[in-house]
Amino acid sequence: MHTKVEAEPLKEEMSGAEIFIQALKNEKVELLFGYPGGAVLPIYDALYKMPIKHVLARHEQGAIHAAEGYARVSGKPGVVIATSGPGATNLVTGITDAMMDSLPLVIFTGQVARGVIGTDAFQEADVVGITMPITKHNFQVRQISDLPRIVKEAFYIATTGRPGPVLVDIPKDISAEVMSPNFELEVDLPGYQPTLSPNVLQIKRLLEAVKNAKRPVVLAGAGVLHAKASEQLLAFVEQNNLPVVNTLLGLGTFPAEHPLNLGMGGMHGTYAANMAMYECDLLISIGARFDDRLTGNLKHFAPKATVAHIDVDPAEIGKNVTTQIPIVADAKEALTKLNEEFDAKPNISEWLAHLTTYKEQYPLWYNNCEKEISPQHLIELVHECTAGNAIVTTDVGQHQMWAAQYYRFNAPNRWVTSGGLGTMGFGFPAAIGAQLADREANVVALVGDGGFQMTLQEMSLLTELDLPVKIVIVNNNALGMVRQWQETFYEQRYSQSIMQHQPDFVKLAESYGIRGIQVTSEKQAKEVLQETLNKREPILIDCRVSRMENVYPMIAPGKGLHEMIGVKR
Ligand SMILES: Cc1ncc(C[n+]2csc(CCOP(=O)(O)OP(=O)(O)O)c2C)c(N)n1
Ligand SMILES: [Mg+2]
Predict the structure, then answer these.
(1) Which of its termini does the chain have fewer beta carbons within 10 Å around, N or C?
(2) ∠ at Cα 122 (117, 127), nearest 5°?
(3) Cis peptide before 216 (omega within 30 of 0)
């Protein structure tokens, strides 16, 4: 694939660091998330002279999760810079997270000078080796003349096909070296040519299968978001009158309140969604990758179905689930073609009525105990007080699952969560990136008391950058999800899952210059959320919720879609 580059050639001599900054400008980068150090000092010096807005996180993990939140909400690549050695290794969790959830990141790490690579030099780490399995691609710049091309290719690879993180390692002496750069480049990667247009025969086969299906269901995942194909999905679904299940990461691809939406599938999905996947005769997966948290025991996953799988990454097709109708394509292109070629909808009124019965008879449920705040109700209150329009980010654990279940997303790109890797500490910095991507949005970080303590140092950024992010701590004084598994599967032996000591989150917020409020009752929660969630200032709300609440329904490990526990009629 050849892409013409419009950048102006700059003929005068520039340092590697200046060439690097100019290459970022040519890519229209508006924002860098980073942290300085020895190996990137030449780059930070060039940045001083040729400014691009830089967000100084307080930990490299904060920088990279913020970049992920920015990428998720803006659709643009998140750009990260860190120094060699510990700076780079502090990025590893975020890089893996972005790889698992297909987020476009371009990460630049400083490296020790070429002459000492391999000598255990101060702050040397083999970052290319370390990140080989967790990047879509990585580079080490070996000579200054390669720098403009490598930066160009890094952005191209990160943002095309299936998005993902790309890392570029830049030795310090290359940043300091001088040359006359050539920015007039074309991306020319014969070995990397993502297939975006669907095979027409397979499209016809799928439409034929839809027309003849008795029990079809659509499974919509985050690939729909990456392809910006929500409109095309809605058209396809409505044209054919098909029921829809969302993956965790696909929430918002299809309106939660649409009558054809069955809710989220998987371990903590709805009964209707999971039974639809169990009983269907045609499963149409669009931009989803059959994660084990979605499928449960594969033996019982869609056992009677013909499986159609639309995915831009051919490696996903047939990876976990045998597929009869493979469509390698960008989700928007595939759906557009399906909509154009449509001729007749299936006759499935009985199936739809059957699924409606499931929805009505087995809805999500929880106990509302008056004395304490029930965490599920807390999420409903957040939904109510933000009119369902907020960008919601989460950590990982019970609160994440309750957010997925009870904050009903009706629009794309409002839901920012760590799905594949399940990274505690993701939610709060991701909210910072989300707010930087959309300054007008109402951004709520729904975090666990455990996860928040992993990255809370980034509160400095709220004051520094004047970001009105709301932090809602779903505080159950526990590593709640671990405690739930210990209760259910380890005979209530709560080994290391109850917090013996917690900081005073209100005082902590105040020490960062942010208003902090603690709430302990439902009445107070409602009043405080109503008062605060639409304010244009950062506020932390420490919500003390009931401690022994569990996430239901659930597919226990090893069980199938039809074996959910905690289903109430
Ligand atoms: C970095 C990291 N370490 C450990 C885990 C394992 N883990 C999953 S959920 C969870 C508990 C999270 O506690 P908290 O943040 O308070 O959320 P809660 O489940 O209580 O809502 C743990 C320890 C993880 N997902 N990520
Ligand atoms: Mg907790």
Answers:
(1) C
(2) 55
(3) no
What is the model's pTM?
A: 0.97
From 394, 396, 483, give the residue whose CB has the most ligand 1 atoms within 8 Å, as the site to mutate: 396
- Rg, the chain, Cα only: 24
Using the structure block, give the residue that is written with the tokens 């709430």: 519
Of residues 9 and 124, more confidently modeled: 124
Task: For residue 481, report the distance from its CA to the centre of ligand 1, in Å.
Answer: 6
Q: Is there an atom of ligand 1 within 6 Å of 403 CB? A: no
- Listed in sequence order, the residues at least 6 apart from 194 whose beta carbon sits closer than 8 Å to its beta carbon are 160, 161, 162, 312
- Is residue 174 within 8 A of residue 310, CB to CB? The reply is no
Name residue 106's beta-bridge partners.
Answer: 79, 166
Residue partners of 126: CB distance under 8 A and separation at least 6: none
Regarding the beta carbon of 62 and ligand 1, being less than 6 Å apart is answered no
Average per-residue pLDDT for the chain: 96
Contact between residue 511 and residue 487 where contact means Cβ atoms under 8 Å apart:
no
Distance CA 245, CA 272 (A): 9
Active site residues: 60, 122-123, 172, 481
Nearest CA owner, ligand 1 atom 13? 479
Percent of the chain with pLDDT over 90: 96
Residues 6+ apart with CB under 8 A from 429: 57, 61, 62, 63, 65, 66, 69, 455, 458
Tens of pLDDT, residue by residue over 512-567, are 999 999 999 999 999 999 999 999 999 999 999 999 999 999 999 999 999 999 99
**Residues 472, 77: Cα–Cα separation, whole Å:** 27
Q: Is the CB of 450 under 6 A from ligand 1?
A: yes
Are 455 and 425 in contact, with CB atoms under 8 Å apart? Answer: yes
| pLDDT on residue 197 | 98
**Cα angle value 56/60/65 (rounded, 5°):** 95
- In one-letter notation, the amino acid at residue 407 is Y
Bridge partners of 470, per DSSP, are: 444, 539
The span from the CA of 494 to the CA of 498, in Å, is 7
Pocket of ligand 1 contains residue 97 by CB under 6 Å: no
DSSP letter string over 364-399?
------SSSB-HHHHHHHHHHHTTT--EEEE-SSHH
What gap in Å lies between CA 209 and CA 202, rounded to an integer? Answer: 10
What is the DSSP track for 449-477? HHHHHHHGGGHHHHHHHT---EEEEEE-S
Pairing mode, if any, of strands 78-82 and 105-111?
parallel
**Above 50 in pLDDT, residue 435?**
yes
Position of tokens 């989150």? 505
**Each residue of 479-510: pLDDT tens digit?**
999 999 999 999 999 999 999 999 999 999 99
Q: Which residues contact 293 (CB under 8 A, 6 or more apart)?
A: 248, 266, 267
> Dmax over Cα atoms in the chain, in whole Å?
74
∠55-57-61 over CA atoms, to 5°?
Answer: 125
